[in-house]
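Lab notebook, bench 4. The sequencing result for the construct came back, and we need a structural model before the next group meeting so we can plan mutations. Quick request posted to the team channel:

Model the 3D structure of this chain.
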Amino acid sequence: MHYTAPIKQSHRLGRWHKVVLVGGLLCCLIAAAVVVLALPKASTTTTQVTAATEKHEGITSHIMFAGDVNWGRFTQRRAEASGKGYAYLMSGIQPSERAAYDAWIANFECPVTSKDVPYATQVAILKFNCRPEYLSALAKYFTAASLANNHTDNNGGQWGLQQTRLNLEKSGIQYFGTYDMEQTGDICEVISVPAASGKKHVELPLALCGYMYVVDARPTDAQLQVMRSYSKVMPVVAFPHMGIEYRNTAESEKVSAYRRMIDNGADIVIGAHPHVIQNSENYKGRLIAYSVGNFLFDQQSVSSETNRALTVGIKLSVPAGRAADAYMAAAGSCRAYKDTCLRALQKSISKRPTIRVAYDFGCYSLTSGVPVKGSAQECQLANRAATTDKLENLSKQW
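Done. Here's the predicted structure in token form:
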């Protein structure tokens, strides 16, 4: 009997301790949950915002197109005598002028080889060659170059063209087009231009199609229809080389040919070859610049008009979505010549997105032998020659 009561009290205390312990644990858990719920969800919110921002940034790229570029003949002699070496070619360009654009694209009107053509021959029969050593300077400015002209066959025909391609690849300059329009597989090439997606540096695929119709040739339907498959998934720029030299307005045959390029999928046409600026037009909401003139050429003694250059800028804005994601994913592989970029985009893009576009025009003077930003008067003359005042109502969407 003496041990019964203490034993019962011990059991009661044990049960009470358990109740207190369980109750305490529950209070702690509830308090912890309240604290967690009260804390700001900084990391989760940040991740969600970042993901949403990246998803909706889209892509923008600002591209400048220029005309004929040749650093052979007398331009090479000037460079050698300048004391500036290879940098002479772009010595008139200010850094801010290049920085205003993501990419520069022009027509390189000479084979680029180490096999020299005598100066007298270049002058007498217009057979050109440009030394590859100068590409190190040009690569700081030009993203891509057209080889669709009547001079890339001047030094060994196909051999010279192949040497040109190899030298451009070594310098990091992309290229497109050929002098031989029978080679329809060489007309268009997808290149990759620098672009931005928000604060990120990305790249944008762009189809560039070079056409050469200088020697009594006219575009065939088959040649122009090459652009159609590209136009279904990406922007297309036609860069033709055609027409009568030193003429201020485009002849009717060229007008017809360039309009057909728009009808076959080109979003814009940038013409070269006449060595002077010609008129422009708004055709079905698309810009056709029939000739933007020279950009680097030794024709200072020909006329004031061969020393005046027009540049055409386009700012492309691709909205966020599957197409923009596909462009960014594929663009890195589009820098190689004869790549599979088109096929990759055809698999991932069922319909080309609507792309916003804005235009701008600039001018350069070549009177010093190299391109220098034109004065207000020079630019007024360049815009008048290009009839840019008649380009109202260009489509703001491609």
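The CA atoms of residues 150 and 179 lie 6 Å apart.
Will bring this to the meeting.
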